[in-house]
Amino acid sequence: MKNPNAREQILDRIKNSAHRQRNEQNGITGKAQKKPSPVFPVSDLTLTEQFQQELEKIQGTFHSVKNREELLNTLNKLHDNYRWPFVFCRDNELTEILKDAGLEVTSNMQRFPETEAALTGCEWLIAETGGVLVHSGSTSGRKLHFFPAVHMVVATPMQLVRTLEEALIRMEEQYGENLPSQITHIAGPSRTADIEKTLVMGAHGPKALHVLLTEYE
Questions:
Q1: What whole-number distance in Å separates Cα of residue 71 and Cα of residue 212?
Q2: 14 lies in a domain?
Q3: pLDDT tens-digit profile of 110-150?
Q4: pTM of this prediction?
Q5: Distance separating alpha carbons of residues 32 and 11, to the nearest angstrom
Q6: Dihedral sign, Cα of residue 113, residue 119, residue 122, residue 128
Q7: Which of 32, 42, 108, 158 is the most exposed place for a label (fewest CB within 10 A)?
Q8: Is there a domain that residue 27 lies in?
């Protein structure tokens, strides 16, 4: 005869094992790993230099923007390059920047299917991977990171960290038990080589990722 409590016992063992492992490893709430991870080569570059190098390796584009004027000029140059009809943005501060640049901006979801470009913030920039960490709890939500063909991200040097582990630790310190339901590590533009081993950009998301690192806040 089968043990009617077998399922509960198995689940309890799994739960206890996971709890022990978390305690042994100190979870992601332990000391932030600011040094390079064992799987990544040691770099003597600054965080900004390493992030730029790694971002460009995965076909993202890095823009160093020193002040507000350079930020407006960079956005206008991107518009001249892509000629999008408008930029979709849900962040109030970024919306004002787009307006000051003379660009049309909207947050009207009825126009979202027409969107070719979006401007968002981010949570962290990961120097080791050139990745951008975003989450569903931000003003941009989930769609803006995946749907538009051109994704532009504005961040400051204060959002640069060395490792993905450090970024996750900082997120847990900030949000505690209220972590966003979705945390995404964006590693450059969307791409796939599944079809006849031919690289296709924008297969599952943006064809272009631009990170504007600015000292202007």
A1: 8
A2: no
A3: 999 999 999 999 999 999 999 999 998 888 877 888 889 99
A4: 0.78
A5: 31
A6: positive
A7: 42
A8: no
- Of 97, 78, 184, give the one whose Cα is nearest residue 137: 184
- Report the C-alpha gap between 70 and 79 in whole angstroms: 14
In a domain, 17, yes or no: no
Q: In this structure, is residue 144 part of a structural domain? A: yes
Q: For residues 213 and 156, what is the distance between their CA atoms, to the nearest angstrom?
A: 5
Alpha carbons 90 and 109: distance in angstroms, whole number: 10
Q: Would you say 63 and 74 are in contact if contact means Cβ atoms under 8 Å apart?
A: yes
Please, are residues 192 and 156 in contact by the beta-carbon 8 Å criterion?
Answer: no
Backbone phi and psi for residue 69, each to the nearest 5 degrees, phi listed first: -60, -45
Tens digit of each residue's pLDDT (9 = 90 or more) over 153-201: 999 999 999 999 999 999 999 998 888 888 999 987 755 544 555 444 4
Q: Among 153, 183, 178, 147, which residue's Cα sits nearest to residue 71?
A: 153
What domain range is 207 assigned to? 47-214
Instruction: Report the number of distinct structural domains present in the chain.
Output: 1
